[in-house]
Amino acid sequence: MTTTAIVLAGSRPGRDSFAEAFGTDLKALIPVAGEPMVKRPVRALLASGRIGRVIVLSQAPERIAQALGGDPRVTVGKSDATIAGTMLALCSDRSVDWPLLVTTADHALLDAATVDEFLSAADAADIAIGVVERDALSRRLPGTKRTWLKFKGGAYTGANLFALRSPKVAPAIELWRWAEQDRKKGWRLVALFGPAILLGSALRLLSIDQVFARVGRKLNLIVTAVVLTNPLAGVDVDKVEDHALAEAILGDRV
Questions:
Q1: Which residues of the chain fall below pLDDT 50?
Q2: Phi/psi of residue 18, each to 5°?
C-alpha cells in the first residue's frame, strides 16, 4: 500500500519578515541551496518507494505550482488559513486516498531514507509522530537550539512528520485546533490530555512511549512516537539562523 504525502506550504496571517528577508512574501519560496525551499521535501517524498502521490497545500497554489514544475505525481491545492483547518478538510474530503504522511515545506533537509524509516515504523499506528532525540541532534549539531519535550529517559524535538491512518483521526485534529497557537509550548499540548499525563511528563515519571500510549487511550486511537535515526530530521527552516544552518549542512560545511 502506498501513502499519500501532504506538504503544508501555507503562510501565517500578516507579513512574514523571514520570507521578506529573502525577497519573497511566501516562506515556501525562500531559496535554499539555489532552489525554492518547498522543492526539497517534495523531491525527497517522490524519491521514496512508499509514496504514491504528493499533495502540496498553500494559500497561493498557483505560485507554488509554478515553483514545483509539472511532475504528474504532484498536485497543488488551496489550503485553509490554519493547519488544523486544512487537515480537517482533508478528513472530510472523500477524494483523498489514505493513509497520509504530513510534512511541511520548511523541512528542507528531509531525505527519502527518513521517509521510508518513518513510514515503516508507523504502519501499526492510527497517528504516528516523528521525533529526534536531543543527544543525537546535539552530537551532530552542538549548540543547536530547538523546542524540547522532556520525558523519562530523554528529551525530543518534533521532526515535522506525521502519519495518519484514516479519517477517524479527526477528533485528535480538533483537539490540536485548540492548541495550535501554543504549538511551540509542548507542555500545553500535553496538558490537554489531563493532569495525570501532564504531571507524569513534567516530573519525567513517564517515557515518551508511555505518554503517547496514554494519549492514544484518551483518544481511542493508537498513537506512537517514531524516534528517527537521522538527527537532521529535527531541523526545519523557520528563521534566518535555521536557513544559514541548512545551507551550511547542504554545502558540507557543518
A1: 193-203
A2: -65, -50
